[in-house]
């Protein structure tokens, strides 16, 4: 909890820097300009246009910029976006998010003259975004291309504390004699699964690929590229530790601990709700919400380890505010008013704009008490018509070009129930957890293309083999050397080398001194 409070204070400091940085950008802007913005609807069942959204209306009023919205039909976003780009008839701003996935990301479209290179415009028209993206070395490195350019606005957010955890049912744990005892090590899980089986339960339904990251991390590997302790890149399924992992998974399968149809199309949460499996890996606040609805209680368990006290190097969330949730906004090269389009996007990183995006409108969507504590109103938390999961896109803007507050601060689904918040914050002060094994670097378009030439066949091969190993269709011991040799012959070491190049460039990035001074 102390760590969370310190990070909220850090966020406040970033916002104060933004307040200073925005001295040259004042709102509302002059002239009542208009920009066009292609933006998918986030709650299409309840709102058909952002023209009806009270928060977007307030943003238009506060910035002095009129927004003409273009909304693709729900379910056709990727198709419509690609067709629009091919047509060449582009709006000023596009909310690309995860709808435009290509080698090299938005930078590829900048190089092709479709999107605008924002780098030289930011200090003048988006100083608050500069302040957010230069608040830490990690934020800057993640928000820029390998060659130091900025090609889109990223939602900046502290994503920690982690949301995905191991979940157990209190009633089942009591039935099998464990009470409030929780598993810690892989050996503990083996004992737990054995006791679950003895009482008629499957232990757990792994992912359909058999590659369950939480358990892989205990073996100090991931299911893809990762960093060794010395900073070198490795590929999880091309390590000796991977052999240990799949050997354990095979033992659990042979013992009857794994749900037998885990490779098929199943709903794991439904198996947990119906008491067919005893363990579920899912976001803790979602697990709590489902349990509350179904009428049972849960335990949230810390990450599994090989031994108690083991350093867990694969925390995928960050305590720095960094590009998060895949929320990306671009200005097109066709933009008719570049300064005001960028100023509009900059607004979400100002103190005023971030408050509006994150909380909505004071007195309508939230209140503030004498101590300054903000609380959502029933318009969001207890709306008889619109559930909070959709209301967070209608009465506030949960995603967008903004400096986002962490979920434990302003996500209504998390803070709306003290028990949900408790589960989300549980284990957040674990000092044996870090992110030193995670690769945050991105590849250039050329690197992505070169690595993909190897990985297409490699992915197919190792994903086929992992199931054969776990299910016992192929013996691990007698076929391991051939498996590793095949991976090598397919070019995995070349793919690792390409990734290492990207990591080295990422690690060498330094925030430009003129950017630092401009954001202070």
What is the count of DSSP helices, taking H or I runs of 4+ residues?
24
Which CATH architecture of the domain at 2-160 and 327-347? 3-Layer(aba) Sandwich
Spans where pLDDT lies below 50 across 5 or more residues? 17-22
Task: Please bin the fraction of helical residues.
Answer: 40-55%
Radius of gyration: 24 Å
3D architecture notes:
Among the domains are: 2-160 and 327-347, D-Maltodextrin-Binding Protein, domain 2, CATH 3.40.190; 445-510. Strand 12 (366-368) and strand 13 form a beta hairpin. The protein has helices at residues 2-21, 54-63, 77-87, 106-111, 122-125, 127-133, 137-143, 170-175, 186-198, 213-218, 240-254, 268-273, 284-294, 338-346, 351-359, 378-381, 388-391, 407-410, 412-415, 418-425, 445-471, 476-489, 492-508, 513-518, and strands at residues 34-38, 66-70, 93-95, 153-157, 164-169, 202-204, 225-227, 233-235, 277-283, 298-301, 322-331, 366-368, 374-376, 403-404. It has 520 residues and is of the alpha/beta class.
């Amino acid at each position: 909890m102390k760590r969370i409070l310190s990070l909220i204070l850090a966020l406040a400091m970033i916002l104060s820097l933004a307040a200073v940085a925005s001295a040259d950008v004042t709102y509302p802007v002059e002239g009542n300009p208009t920009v066009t913005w292609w933006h998918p609807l986030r709650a299409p069942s309840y709102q058909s246009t952002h023209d009806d959204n009270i928060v977007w209306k307030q943003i238009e009023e506060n910035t002095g910029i009129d927004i003409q919205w273009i909304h693709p039909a729900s379910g056709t976003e990727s198709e419509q976006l690609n067709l629009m780009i091919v047509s060449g008839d582009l709006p000023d701003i596009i909310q690309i998010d995860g709808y435009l996935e290509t080698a090299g990301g938005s930078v590829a479209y900048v190089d092709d003259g479709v999107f605008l290179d924002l780098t030289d415009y930011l200090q003048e028209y988006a100083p608050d975004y500069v302040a957010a993206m230069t608040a830490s070395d990690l934020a800057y490195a993640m928000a820029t291309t390998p060659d130091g350019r900025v090609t889109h606005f990223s939602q900046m957010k502290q994503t920690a504390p982690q949301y995905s955890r191991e979940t157990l049912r209190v009633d089942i744990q009591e039935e099998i004699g464990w009470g409030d005892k929780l598993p810690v090590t892989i050996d503990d899980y083996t004992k737990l699964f054995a006791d679950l089986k003895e009482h008629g339960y499957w232990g757990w339904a792994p992912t359909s690929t058999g590659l369950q990251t939480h358990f892989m991390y205990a073996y100090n590997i991931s299911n893809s590229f990762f960093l060794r302790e010395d900073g070198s890149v490795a590929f999880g399924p091309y390590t000796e530790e991977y052999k240990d992992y799949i050997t354990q998974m095979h033992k659990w399968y042979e013992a009857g601990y794994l749900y037998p149809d885990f490779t098929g199309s199943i709903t794991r949460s439904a198996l947990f709700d119906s008491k067919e499996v005893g363990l579920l890996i899912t976001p803790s606040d979602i697990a709590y919400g489902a349990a509350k609805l179904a009428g049972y209680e849960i335990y949230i368990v810390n990450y599994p380890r090989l031994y108690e006290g083991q350093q867990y190097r694969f925390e995928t969330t960050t305590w720095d505010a960094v590009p998060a949730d895949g929320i990306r906004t671009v200005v097109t090269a066709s933009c008719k008013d570049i300064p005001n389009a960028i100023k509009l996007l900059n607004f979400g990183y100002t103190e005023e704009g971030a408050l509006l995006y994150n909380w909505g409108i004071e007195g309508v969507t939230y209140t503030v008490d004498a101590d300054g504590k903000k609380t959502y109103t029933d318009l969001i938390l207890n709306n008889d018509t619109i559930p909070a999961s959709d209301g967070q896109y209608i009465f506030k803007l949960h995603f967008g070009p903004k400096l986002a507050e962490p979920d434990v601060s302003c996500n209504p689904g998390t803070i709306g129930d003290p028990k949900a918040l408790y589960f989300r914050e549980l284990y957040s002060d674990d000092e044996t957890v870090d992110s030193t094994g995670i690769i945050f670097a991105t590849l250039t378009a050329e690197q992505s293309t070169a690595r993909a030439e190897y990985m297409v066949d490699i992915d197919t091969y190792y994903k086929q083999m992992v199931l054969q190993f776990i299910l016992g269709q192929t013996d691990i011991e007698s076929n391991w050397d051939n498996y590793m040799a095949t991976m090598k012959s397919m070019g995995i070491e070349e793919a690792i080398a390409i990734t290492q190049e990207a990591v080295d460039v990422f690690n060498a990035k330094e925030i430009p001194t003129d950017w630092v001074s401009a954001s202070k």
